[in-house]
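BUG: 3D viewer hangs when loading the predicted structure for this chain

Environment: internal workstation, default settings.
Expected: structure renders.
Actual: progress bar stalls at 90%.

Input used:
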Amino acid sequence: MSDRRAWKFKAAAIGATAVTGMAYAVRGRSSSLLGPSVYRGCRTRHAVALTFDDGPSESTPALLNVLAEHQVRATFFQCGANIRRLPAIARAVRDAGHEIGNHSDTHPRFYFKSPAYILDEFVSAQRAIGDVLELTPRVMRPPFGVRWFGFRAMQQDLGLLGVMWTCIGNDWDQPAAKVVVRVTDAITNGAIICLHDGRELRPDPDITNTIDALRMLIPRLASRGFTFETVSQLICPTT
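Structure tokens produced before the viewer hung:
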């Protein structure tokens, strides 16, 4: 191989490695490169955490009813814009004893966004949660699982821990039975399960498949001996 060809091959390999590393930093569930983040809780307890993104929505009360039937507490990562649109439903989530997390204000994709833009999105959502719910979240989840440069500073400023997931149900486009199989096949001690009680900022979303999946999922996991906790309860100091 000529020196020129060898150099091109090496450059291509370096480029591919850089792209792979960048993709992991931005989307890798176990990555903390762009800010403190967890994707699972304590492995020593037979417990899991149900989490729900994108709410509140007009469909959230039906999901709350299922959780109440089974006396399960969960964590809801809420969008500021949806909280301002549906404050009574946001308060119903809080009043049912569920944990509230920050899911940004308008649910954008943060690729190539400036640190100022990132900070403003989470500050606006933090303010909506504080104004409507009178509490200060300590956990956040980035929309689409996308983190970017500026997240670490934002999290430090707001005191927010990033929370990814152990398994995600893909409940926005999969039937309930497939959601249940996808989740149960991935469950181990300390698993954080990602589902959705909204569909980004869309009003009156149809989350029937999520609710149907939840009705099957909770008894199935309970029959395997798992208990349900909020994310903050589930996380161990050593995670």
